[in-house]
Amino acid sequence: MPADERGHAVPDALREEARIWLGRLALAEVTQMDMQAFKRWQHTSAAHQAAFDEAKHQWHAMKLAIDEGLRADPKATARYRQLAHGTPRAAQPGRRAFLGAAMSAAAVAGVAVVAYPPLGLWPAPGAWGADERTATGEQRTLGFARHVRVTLNTQTRVRRETSVHGETTGIDLLAGEVAIDLQAMQEGASPSFVVTAGAGRSGAQGASRFQVRHLRGSKVCVTCIEGSVQVAHAAGHKLLQARQQTVYDATSLGGVQAVEPADLSAWRKGELVFRQTPLAQVLDEINRYRPGRVVLMADARRDSAVSGRFSIAVLDEALLQIQHSFDLRARVLPGGLLILS
Predict the structure, then answer these.
(1) Structural domains in the chain, sorted by start
(2) What is each CA distance from 253 to 216, 243, 249, 272, in whole angstroms?
(3) Spatial distance between the Cα atoms of 164 and 254, rounded to a whole number of angstroms
(4) For 222-254, how does the pLDDT look when each residue is reduced to its tens digit (9 = 90+)?
(5) What's this model's pTM, rounded to 2 decimal places?
(6) N- to C-terminal Cα separation, the chain
């Protein structure tokens, strides 16, 4: 278990809670009750305090490094400003007073008006009320119901959907990625399970395997590995067969495309597979599995194509390969931060 610089053990779960608190205090309607709840959490133990101090320190170090890189790259500056102000939210009177009691001004500079903070430092507000969650790099398999296995990938948050009898009949995927395995029942009945994600619902009945991916923004990707999956959306319905995929967002439902499921399910075997994928997307994916954060400041390299198969257990080796392949300069900062420029 990692420890902070004062020797306090800081579990990964506390790190996750600290980032959520940091985001909640910076973005939400902060009331006196919120502050009291935060103080109770913060003072639970030395490890709680250390986790929050680490989250503040990480954001501060990242902000300093980004500011330095932006001063040297006008194109990156314009792109970053667009990202930072893409979902503006007006700061409420008195919020600064609450924030001042919880964290330094440097820790929240530039984020109090961003509903989806740049670089994904903490989960989006809609993903806070989860029944089950996984931390960065964690994968977990749950048995929600008979003959149903649900595997949560890294940085995934779900809420259970239950019947009147209390049986889990599905999940609401708030963020991240899940794999659903439905096994045939010996008595002849067909198990069913539904995944709600964003504006759609994906359901399967009988022996089937499918995956649902819901990352930042409103886009959701549904992939059928075996059997069939019915995708329901306000814009229509799609029936996916094995090796087929569709993507939808808040307003539209895309067509059905053929895919290679082995690549898409590689994460279940501890691998990430990329085929001519833009470097920016590759680093976004690596950031889901690697503690800390990788920030690409070389704007000219964002669309450079990357192909390869990388082990999730040794992603720093993958980053070293990427650094050398694209002649990038790396700067290592505390908290697992890596700036590539």
Answers:
(1) 12-122 (no CATH), 127-260 (2.60.120.1440), 270-340 (3.55.50.30)
(2) 17, 18, 7, 27
(3) 33
(4) 999 999 999 999 999 999 999 999 999 999 999
(5) 0.69
(6) 31
